[in-house]
Amino acid sequence: MGLLIFIIAFLFVLGGALLLLRSAKAVKIPEGVKAQPYEDDIED
Fold first, then answer.
1. pTM
2. pLDDT for res 37
3. How far is CA 10 from CA 4, 16, 19, 44, in A?
4. What φ, ψ does residue 27 adopt, rounded to 5°?
5. pLDDT (tens digit, 0 to 9) for every residue of the chain, 44 residues total?
6. Tell me, what DSSP letter sits at residue 41?
7. 3-state secondary structure 3-21
């Protein structure tokens, strides 16, 4: 019974790691995009 729980937990961890890896590769910021300053950072 303990082995079955261990295998299920391992599959959840592996699946979560693969999901995070896939989502990290999906987002690519184009080179022409620049960060916009926050309104609090702009001094008048």
1. 0.52
2. 78
3. 10, 10, 14, 55
4. -95, 115
5. 999 999 999 999 999 999 998 887 777 778 888 888 777 766 65
6. G
7. HHHHHHHHHHHHHHHHHHH
17 token code pair: 């790691």
Task: Give 12's Cβ-side CA count (13 Å radius).
Answer: 6
What is the largest distance, in Å, between two alpha-carbon atoms of the chain? 67
- The owner of tokens 């790691």 is 17
User: Amino acid letter at 1?
Assistant: M
Can you give the C-alpha Rg of the chain in angstroms? 21
The whole-number pLDDT of residue 39 equals: 74
